[in-house]
């Protein structure tokens, strides 16, 4: 036992070296910067031993280093969550800082959804983002997903109806695939309404959505369909899917100019400058 204690004491002394400016006081070394002890005497089994201790500035530096380590670990974890969860690379860099309509009602609502994530997740509050083509539904869904991952460090899966159907068709373990979608803290499903209206497709889409429903976990869905198309679909096979989505998700209309048309115009102008010197 004495050998173990002596070894620990010796290592503590080596780990906290005496530096230029440190000084002796009452038989112990003190830090020349913060003027607190770097050595301490302890009693153990009737023997007095000297061990190294962190001075105040040494303790502050240690805590700073630990904070940096934890920060780096968190950033690495968040990066893994993004890479594994956001399956559409175009959405990985979506950010509210790039929103060109930050004062619009829908933008304010969606930012508030992120701010109140702990509350909305407990209460299983989902969102249905609907509106015309190119108005930014997928962009906003990506913003929400990225912000929740970064701010709360929780697993989020962003996928689409076509991707779900393709992956279910190709995977050998459908139950495990659906479980991964179910277990994520948030599931974002893009492009509802683009699914093939076969019995198989409808059943698979309903299964994914219904598993989220039974797990009491929030779902965000985007669609180009309007409220009437969702509430009264022409194909009865769609009714069960859309009814479940409307039950789980609060509808928010994303309106405004088509970003696709705006972006296309910008690219055309840039092409003219580069190619035709206009």
Describe the structure.
With 278 residues, this protein is an alpha/beta fold. It contains 11 helices and 9 strands. The protein has helices at 2-15, 56-85, 105-115, 117-122, 137-152, 161-170, 174-183, 199-215, 227-231, 236-248, 259-276, and strands at 23-25, 28-30, 39-44, 47-52, 126-130, 156-160, 186-192, 219-223, 249-253. It has a 5-stranded parallel β-sheet with strand order 6-7-8-5-9, with helices on both faces. It has a two-stranded antiparallel ribbon with strand order 1-2. Strands 3-4 form a two-stranded antiparallel ribbon. β7, α8 (199-215) and β8 (219-223) form a beta-alpha-beta unit. α3 packs parallel to α5, α7 (174-183) crosses α8 (199-215) and α8 packs parallel to α10. The model is unreliable at 260-268 (pLDDT under 50).
Brief write-up:
The protein is an alpha/beta fold. The protein has eleven helices and nine strands.
The largest β sheet comes out as: 5 strands, parallel
Number of helices: 11
Helicity level, as a percent range?
40-55%
Computed CA radius of gyration, to the nearest angstrom: 29 Å
Assembly status: single chain
Beta-strand content estimate: 15-25%
Give the helices and strands, then pairings:
Layout: H1 2-15, E1 23-25, E2 28-30, E3 39-44, E4 47-52, H2 56-85, H3 105-115, H4 117-122, E5 126-130, H5 137-152, E6 156-160, H6 161-170, H7 174-183, E7 186-192, H8 199-215, E8 219-223, H9 227-231, H10 236-248, E9 249-253, H11 259-276
Parallel strand pairs: 5-8, 5-9, 6-7, 7-8
Antiparallel strand pairs: 1-2, 3-4
């Amino acid at each position: 036992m004495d050998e173990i204690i002596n070894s620990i004491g010796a290592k503590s002394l080596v780990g906290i070296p005496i530096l230029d400016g440190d000084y002796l006081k009452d038989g112990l070394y003190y830090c020349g910067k913060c003027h607190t002890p770097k050595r301490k005497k302890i009693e153990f089994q009737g023997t007095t031993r000297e061990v190294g201790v962190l001075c105040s500035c040494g303790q502050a530096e240690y805590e700073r280093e630990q904070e940096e380590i934890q920060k780096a670990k968190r950033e690495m974890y968040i990066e893994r969550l993004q890479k594994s969860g956001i399956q559409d690379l175009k959405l990985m860099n979506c950010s509210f800082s790039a929103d060109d309509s930050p004062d619009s009602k829908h933008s304010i609502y969606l930012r508030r959804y992120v701010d109140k994530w702990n509350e909305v997740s407990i209460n299983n509050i989902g969102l249905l983002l609907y509106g015309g083509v190119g108005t930014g539904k997928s962009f906003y869904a990506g913003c929400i997903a990225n912000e929740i991952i970064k701010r709360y460090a929780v697993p989020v899966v962003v996928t689409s109806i076509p991707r779900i159907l393709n992956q279910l068709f190709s995977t050998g373990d459908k139950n495990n695939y659906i479980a991964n979608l179910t277990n994520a803290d948030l599931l974002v499903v893009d492009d509802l309404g683009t699914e093939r209206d076969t019995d198989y497709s409808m059943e698979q889409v309903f299964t994914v959505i219904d598993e989220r429903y039974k797990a009491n976990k929030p779902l965000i869905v985007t669609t180009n369909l309007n409220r009437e198309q969702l509430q009264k679909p022409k194909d009865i096979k769609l009714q069960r899917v859309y009814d479940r989505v409307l039950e789980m998700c609060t509808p928010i209309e994303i309106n405004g100019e088509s970003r696709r048309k705006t972006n296309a115009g910008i690219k055309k102008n840039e092409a003219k400058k580069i190619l035709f010197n206009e």
